[in-house]
Structure formats: structure tokens, C-alpha cells
Amino acid sequence: MRVAVLGHTGFLGKNVLEVFSQAGVMCQGASKSQGVDLRDYEQVVEFLATSQPDIIINCAAHVGSFNYVTENASAVVVDNSRMTLSVYEAMAKVCPKATIIHPLANCAFPAKAEFFKEEEWQDGPVHQTVMPFASTRRLIWSVGQSFAISQGINSIYLLVPNMYGPHDSSDPNQTAVLDALISRFLTAQQTHQNEVTVWGTGVAIREWVFSRDLARLMLTIAATPRRPELREPINVAQNSGLSVRELVDIIQSALGFTGQVRWDHSRPDGALKKVMDDTQFKKVFPEFQFTEFSDGIAATIAYYKSLIQFAE
């Protein structure tokens, strides 16, 4: 099995390389930082012609925090759209029999939805705070379906909750919410700060997936990518969520942080609830076991401790 990972130097991409390597599957990676601009059709053609993959895992995305996406809205839309079009056009030319696996952030679900069912994922507009990025997640599906009709390309769409885990960025503007909280509290603890500011009111509820779990799932899918039940988008779901306040309590307890938390109510909470229906996931992947949340948090804290070092 020949595997190509797009965006292999990013958060999810690094986890995919690690998990696949541990399973004895070597991957070839492509990312802008390593000389392949996925927005450029010719560069994507050259990469795919060289790697000749059977499986393509699309971890590439131009994304960041709420604030980052708002401040860079046009670039987020343009870059992600160009990457999608370039990748599919290049696949059609070079490797139309390959399967491409897309992890799609669940911000693509309608803003009005609180319990996310696959059959309803495009039944209404996305939340305005994430529109520049979320709209491009829906575009991936539209383009993929069109290339399936005209070129026979096989695409798999995994609707994914918020991720956390090792290998996320240390840049607050680029970091996933939970990892950013861990980084912020750890920094405060190690620099002897007595207060940490958290955006919003803390009431927003989110579902979470450990980054290595998502990578393990994609390894499972890569072994049998043409299963009929994977033709439609599927939730990577556990049907459970935690509020931001609950997350903060868990992080404080895990770190032993005794300072104060200040909630900045001037900042948006975003959608108030995002929990995913796991009915279909359990049917398709009945044996898959997710990492216990406490173990995932411990691994993530250990990762950030290795990054954030301060002199005593």
C-alpha cells in the first residue's frame, strides 16, 4: 500500500505519519513548508506522479483560531478552495484509481444543529464565526462527488469533532481550542502567573477526539477503502461532550494549577453545543476503541511540557 499524506507537517499529519509508521506503513508527505504548494496544480501533479499513491490522506488545511479565521477570512477561503481543486484535478490526471480520505471538521454542520446527524450535515448555513473555513469543508464534498461522477475517484469523508493531542502548534493563533487551553495553563503555572484568561462564558459544549485515534481510524480505513458503507460522510463520534468550563476544571486538576480563571465574556462562545450522533459509526466500526479522555489529556500535557521549558 502506497500512502501519500497531504499536510504531513501539520497537527493531524504528524500523528498520521507516526501511527502509520508504527504499523509498518511508510508514507510520502507533501506540504508547503517542505516545498510542495498544494494550491499549485502542477506541483501536486508532480508529487502524485512521483509517489503514485493508492491512498491519499488529506490533512492539509489553512485554518486557525476563531480570531485567526476572522482576520484572514479571504485567504482561508481562497487557499482551501484552491487546494481542493488542485488535488482533485491532479488525481484525475495522475492517479484516478486512488482513494482520498478527508477529515472534515464538524464546523461544517448547520449553526442551528446541536446534535449532529450525518444526513443533516448540510441542512442549513454554518455558524458565522467559522464560515470562511466551514464553507470549504462542504466544498470538498461537492468537488469529491463531482469527480466521482465524471472520473470515478473514490472519496471518503470523515466528519470530525474538535481534535486535541500531541503535535499541535505552540502558536495560540494556530492551536486547537483544547490544546491552546493546556498550553496557556501550563505556561501560567511554569511562569508563576496567578490568573489565566479564557475566552467566552465557558458554557459552550464540544465533543473531542484524540488526534492519534483519528490517525488510527484512517489506518483502519486505508486497509479496506472501498467499503460500501463509506460512500457517504460518516461521523467520527462518541455521542458525548464537555463544556469549556468542565475542560478548564479537568486541565487545572491534571496540572495542579491553583490560580484564578477569568472568563472574558466579550469574546464569542461560538455555537453553544456540538455533539455528534455515533449510531452509524458504531455500525461501521464496532470494534474501534477511543482513548480514555484522561489518558489523552495526560499525553497532551506531556507533549506540551516537552515544548514549553522555562528557567526556574
Automatic annotation (TrEMBL):
Family annotation (InterPro entries): Epimerase_deHydtase, NAD(P)-bd_dom_sf
Domain NAD-dependent epimerase/dehydratase: 3-237
MF-aspect GO terms: GDP-L-fucose synthase activity
Pfam families assigned to the protein according to its UniProt record, in alphabetical order: Epimerase
Annotated signal sequence range: none
Protein name listed in UniProt: NAD-dependent epimerase/dehydratase family protein
